[in-house]
Amino acid sequence: MDEDLEQRMRALAADLAAHRFGETDPRLRAALAEAVTALGRLTDVLGTTPATPGGLHAAAPLDVVVPVLGVDGCSAGWVGALLEPGAPRPRVVVAPTIAELVAMVRESTGIHVVGIDIPIGLPDATIRQADVLARRALPGKAASVFSTLTRAAYAAPNRLEADAVNRGLVGQGVGAQAFALRDRIREVDAWLRSRPTVTVLEIHPEVSFAAMTGEPILAGKKTDQGQSARLEALAAAGIARPSALRGQGYAADDVLDACAVAWSAARHAAGLARPLPDPPEVFSDGIHAAIWA
Hints:
Layout: H1 3-20, H2 26-46, E1 68-74, E2 77-83, E3 91-95, H3 98-106, E4 113-116, H4 129-136, H5 151-155, H6 159-170, H7 176-180, H8 182-193, E5 199-202, H9 205-213, H10 224-236, H11 252-269, E6 275-282, E7 288-292
Parallel strand pairs: 1-4, 4-5
Antiparallel strand pairs: 1-2, 2-3, 6-7
């Protein structure tokens, strides 16, 4: 594909994305959203980005067309990486709850997409395809994706009861990591049910890093080697080193994960992101269940 044509297509997708959210006619909003997605997919398919030895394609550097927020859990609650058009680097923000974090950012910035590293859309009596496909997309790193429990299991008061409920519904027990996130998952689920007026996506950082580089980053995210590799991946994808890597209540791996989530959120705003699965599943909660990258 001609590089000038590719650049014009990307610019058109960015321009459409920058203007689609303010439209009031729902039919026009839907048409614009479909056009942005189709144009982004055509650009990716026809683009000249080189393939990695594994056959996957590393993503081209991303232009941030609208403000987006990537969020990851941390000991202080939630840490966010805010990307804005023209800003030199992500801005790091922290709050004890997801509702407070998003509200704080929206006081000064009109964010269009919030990406969160947490399961969104809880199954009733099945295994989520989002988790299955994310593990498949991460050879050598599949263990970083745990199976989301059923909604009834997360409602159980302790892990023992959750284990019994989940085994009865899907035949799988409840791991310590899966249940440890119970309170965060229920917090985000309750916040989503309050119908925040912003697009909210589930994004897994390791899936995002794999989409950036064309293959999973195998080095652990808490190691110096792993953090250097993630900073390099972000820089190559157009995301500069964040304003802070660590602070009161959050660590460097939390911030880097939030930046990766923000990258995928920005890709969604530009019509370039893909859901796993496509289309997303929908359970009885009515919430789309998919991991975006």
